[in-house]
C-alpha cells in the first residue's frame, strides 16, 4: 500500500509545473521552447538536452555527434561531407557515401573532392 501511495505521489509531482523553483533554475513545461538557446535556432521544437527535434520548413535537420553525445541542429545548408535530402515530412542532411568527397549532390554522386583528389563521373580518385 505504501509503495502504491509513494508511486502515485511521484507521478503527481512529475506532472506538476514547477513555477515555484528558484530564479535562474530551469522551469519544467510541456512545450520545450528555449528561444534564446543558440542550439535551438530555427527549431520548431527543441529539447534542452538534445537540441532541435524538428526544424522550420526550409531548413535541414543535422544530427551532430561529439563522442557519445549527439544533438540536432537546423541549418540553411548541410556541412561538408553531407548533402541535403528534402522530403514532405522533413528536410535532413545525409552523409555522402563516396570516399574522399567534400561535397555531394546525392548519396552516390560527388561534386567536389577533398584536396589532393580529382573528380571523375561523381567519384573521387
What does this structure look like?
By secondary structure, this protein is mostly beta strands. The chain has one domain (30-124): Hormone Receptor, Insulin-like Growth Factor Receptor 1, Chain A domain 2. It contains 1 helix and 10 strands, in the order αββββββββββ. It has one helix spanning 2-15; strands spanning 43-47, 51-55, 60-66, 69-75, 82-85, 92-95, 101-106, 109-113, 119-120, 123-124. The protein has a two-stranded antiparallel sheet with strand order 1-2. Strands 3-4 form a two-stranded antiparallel sheet. The chain is elongated. The N and C termini lie far apart (71 Å).
Number of strands: 10
Order of helices and strands: HEEEEEEEEEE
Give the structural class: mainly beta
Give the name of the CATH superfamily.
Hormone Receptor, Insulin-like Growth Factor Receptor 1, Chain A, domain 2
The largest sheet, given as strand count, sense and whether it forms a barrel, is: 2 strands, antiparallel
Strand order of the largest sheet: 1-2
The shape, in one word, is elongated
* Average of the residue pLDDT scores: 77
Q: And the CATH topology?
A: Hormone Receptor, Insulin-like Growth Factor Receptor 1, Chain A domain 2
Rounded Rg = 21 Å
Q: What oligomeric assembly is this protein in?
A: single chain
Distance between the termini: 71 Å
Measured as a percent range, the helix fraction is: 10-25%
Keywords: Disulfide bond, Glycoprotein, Heparin-binding, Secreted, Sensory transduction, Signal, Wnt signaling pathway
Protein name: RSPO2 protein
Domain R-spondin Fu-CRD: 40-125
Family: Belongs to the R-spondin family.
Amino acid at each position: 500500500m505504501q509503495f502504491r501511495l509513494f508511486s502515485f505521489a511521484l507521478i503527481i509531482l512529475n506532472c506538476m509545473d514547477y513555477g515555484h523553483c528558484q530564479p535562474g533554475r530551469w522551469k519544467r513545461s510541456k512545450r520545450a521552447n528555449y528561444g534564446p538557446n543558440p542550439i535551438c535556432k530555427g527549431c520548431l521544437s527543441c529539447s534542452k538536452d538534445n537540441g532541435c527535434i524538428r526544424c522550420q520548413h526550409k531548413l535541414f535537420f543535422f544530427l551532430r555527434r561529439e563522442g557519445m553525445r549527439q544533438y540536432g541542429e537546423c541549418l540553411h545548408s548541410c556541412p561538408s561531407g553531407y548533402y541535403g535530402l528534402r522530403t514532405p515530412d522533413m528536410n535532413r542532411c545525409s552523409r555522402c557515401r563516396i570516399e574522399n568527397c567534400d561535397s555531394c549532390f546525392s548519396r552516390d554522386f560527388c561534386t567536389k573532392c577533398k584536396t589532393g583528389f580529382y573528380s571523375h563521373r561523381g567519384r573521387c580518385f
